[in-house]
Amino acid sequence: MTAMVEAPSASTEPVGAASARAAKSSGGLGKYILIRFLLIFPTIFILVSMVFFLMRLTGDPITAAQGGRLPQEQLDKLIHDAGYDRPLAVQYADYLGRILRGDLGTTISDNRPVTSMLATFGTATLELTINALVVALLVGIPLGMLAAKHRDKTPDALLRFLAILGYATPVFFVGLLLKLVFSVWLGWLPVAGRASTGTELAMTSLAAPSGIYWLDALRSGNMEAFQDIVKHAVLPALALGLLTAGVFLRLVRTNLIGTLSRDYVEAGRSRGVSEYRLTTKHAYKPALIPIITVMGLQIALMLGGAVLTETTFEWKGLGFQLAQYLTARDFVAVQGIVVMLAIIVAVTNFVVDIVAALIDPRVRY
C-alpha cells in the first residue's frame, strides 16, 4: 500500500510532470498572496467605518472636547468650520476621502495634525512591541519545549500553570509588580520612561533618526546610550511580553507533543536517534508553524496591551497618547490612533499569512 502512494523520486519523475507541479505550487502561492492582499482593503474599510460611527455616538468631537468651556456662539462657529453640522453621511464620505489622501484630521486639544502625532509617537509603540515580542519568543518557545519534554510531570504542570497565570494577569498589575521589585526594592532598573533625558536628547538630535532608540544608538555607535535604553526597556518589555509568552508556551508544548508522536519520529526512535536530536532537529520546526500563524493576533493583543503598559511605565508612545487624548475627550485624535492601529494589525496579519504560506505550503490551499 505504501509503495503504491509513494511519490516518485527525482530521478524517475518526468521533467514535464515536475515542471507542472512547480508551476502549480507557484501559482497557488501567487493566488494566495493576491487574495490575502485584496482582503486588507475591506478589513480596513470595515474597521474605519466602525470607528467613525462609534465615535459619532458621543456627538460631534468639538462639543465632546470643548463643551462647557467655550461660549455657545464660539462653539457653534467651531462646529460649523469643522463641518460637524453637516449630515452624517456627508461627514462620513468626507472622512473616507481625507483618509485616502492621508489626512486624518487635526487634534482638538493641542491643534496638531494627527499624522504628525502618529509619526512622532508611533515608533515608540513599535519599539515596545518589538521588544515584547522578543521576550515572548525567548521565554515561550524554550519553556514550551521543556514542558513537552516533561509531559504530564511536575515541570510540565508548573509551566502550564505559569502560562495561564501570565496570560490571565492584567498587564498593568504585572508592570506595577515589576516596578516594585526591580526598581523600588532592588534599585536595579529605572522606574519609567524610554531613556534618560540626556539619552533622549542625543537620539532626537541624530541626523535622520529612525525613532527606535536602541536602533539609533547602535547606528551611531553610542554604546553608553544603548545600555541606558536597554535598562529602560527591560521592565515594559517583560510586562507586555509575558502576556504573550504564555500563549506561545502552550502552543509549542501542544504541537511538539503531537509532532513527537508522528510516524517519522517513531521511525527515528527505532533507529536509535536521541530524544534531543528528535526534538530539536525533526519536531521543532513543524511545532513552530502554529506560532507563526497566530503571531498576527498576538501582535494585535500586544498593541492593545501597549495602552496599559505605556501608561504604567510612562512610555510615550501611541498607547500613552491615547490615554491622554481620551482624558481630554479629543475624539479626533482617538479616532486617528485607533485607525492607525487597525491598519497596522491588518498589514501585520497579511505579512504573517505570507510567511506561514512560505513555510507550510498546505496553508496556500
Would you write up a description of this structure?
With 365 residues, this protein is mainly α. It has a domain at 120-364: MetI-like (MetI-like fold, Orthogonal Bundle). It contains 15 helices and no strands. It has helices at 2-5, 15-56, 61-66, 72-82, 88-100, 114-149, 154-168, 171-185, 197-204, 213-220, 223-260, 263-270, 275-313, 318-327, 331-359. The longest helix is centred in the first third of the chain and has 42 residues, at 15-56. The radius of gyration is 26 Å and the shape is globular. 32% of the residues are buried.
**Arithmetic mean of pLDDT:** 81
Percentage of residues assigned to helices? over 70%
The end-to-end distance, rounded to whole angstroms, is 26 Å
The name CATH uses for the topology of the domain at 120-364 is: MetI-like fold
The CATH class of the domain at 120-364 is Mainly Alpha
Task: State which percent range the strand residues make up.
Answer: under 5%
Please provide the count of β strands. Answer: 0
Helix tally equals: 15
CATH superfamily of the domain at 120-364: MetI-like
Q: Quickly give the CATH architecture of the domain at 120-364.
A: Orthogonal Bundle
Q: What sort of overall outline do the alpha carbons produce when their principal axes are compared?
A: globular
Q: Helix/strand/pairing class, anyone?
A: mainly alpha
Question: Residue ranges: pLDDT <50 for 5 or more in a row?
Answer: 1-13, 15-20
